[in-house]
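Hey L., structure's done. Input below.
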Amino acid sequence: MAKKLIVIVGPTGIGKTDLSINIASYFKTDILSSDSRQFYKELSIGTAVPNLEQLNTIQHHFIQHLSIHDYYNASMFEMDSLKLLSSLFETKNYVLLVGGSGMYIDAVCKGIDDIPDIDIEIRNSLIDRMEAEGIESLRFELKKLDPDFYNLVDLKNKQRVLRALEVCLQTGKSYSSFRTHLLRERNFKIVKIGLTMNRDELYQRINLRVDQMIEQGLVEEARSMFPNKHLNSLKTVGYRELFDYFEGKQSFEKAIELIKRNSRHYAKRQLSWFNRDKEINWFNPSQFEEIVKCIE
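Output:
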């Protein structure tokens, strides 16, 4: 029987965790998390890490296995995932890959271009510059060093602009020159399941989840991370808005409002990314039987 990697994708807050646990239980297998925000052991509430009961129900991998101080990228995740999949497929016919980080999912399914590691000093200097001068400064330099990628990239996506520019400065070559888009052969089949629902319902779920995170102690978790706010791992929704509140830049109520708004915007960007992939079979999270039938 051909081995199958079941890939479950979808926007934040749609219910990937609960559904993936049910599917993993049905197929008696493990889950690989491809949610890059859940990699860090210091973070749990703001990254919606599965709770202890969920983690004890199904064996999860790549959950809180890194420190916020560690450097990690999609290429490293590809290598780690393929090594683990090789081992798991020795005894299992199905394995799940679950998350909302499109680049990390593509790395496992399609392979990622061989982009070199970046000197931490280059990255930190660009982050400092972005905070001091704004993203427009980095966009302007990227336009000079790599006009082709500048015309392709979402210029509002700070992380992608930063990533492209740091590669240009590290290598002296354009970021575009590394983007060969060569598909890597995999020795397993891939079945992609995408989760979707009415946009208003999704946004209500996101707003509710933010309220639940606050009740669970997100403010205290963010406060404990405040001394590390300069780290790339903490420049993410749910933390940066509270950091601004701690610094007196905005009220607590405004911070919560922004977490909800930015989470909704993030979900919209995730859906735009996944909608480009024509291999994805789309379902509502409630369609368990239909999803299992598609996988089988």
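The chain has three domains: 4-114+183-197+272-295, 120-178, 200-268. The beta strands are 4-9, 31-33, 60-61, 94-99, 189-195, 280-283.

-- N.
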